[in-house]
């Protein structure tokens, strides 16, 4: 599974990265979690508001910070 956390380094972006890594560890799913801070790469996903969450190439979240339950649900949908 390929997970990308999109964000330029704001507090919400850092929090999303932390939450995603916690959820991946908790549900023990093999995943490559990457933090993408480059604006050009973020825009390629069509994300104009950060933080953003991309799972297996699909934009799941843009412009808000989801809770752990929401993140877990999104990851499990893509398994």
UniProtKB/TrEMBL annotation:
SUPFAM superfamilies: Thioredoxin-like (SSF52833). The keyword Disulfide bond applies. It comes from the Bacteria. InterPro entries: Thioredoxin-like_fold (IPR012336), Thioredoxin-like_sf (IPR036249), THIRX-like_proc (IPR005243). Keywords: Disulfide bond, Redox-active center. Pfam families: Thioredoxin_3. Disulfide bonds join 10-13. The active site is at 10 (nucleophile), 13 (nucleophile). NCBIfam families: redox_disulf_2. This is Redox-active disulfide protein 2. It comes from Desulforamulus reducens (strain ATCC BAA-1160 / DSM 100696 / MI-1) (Desulfotomaculum reducens).
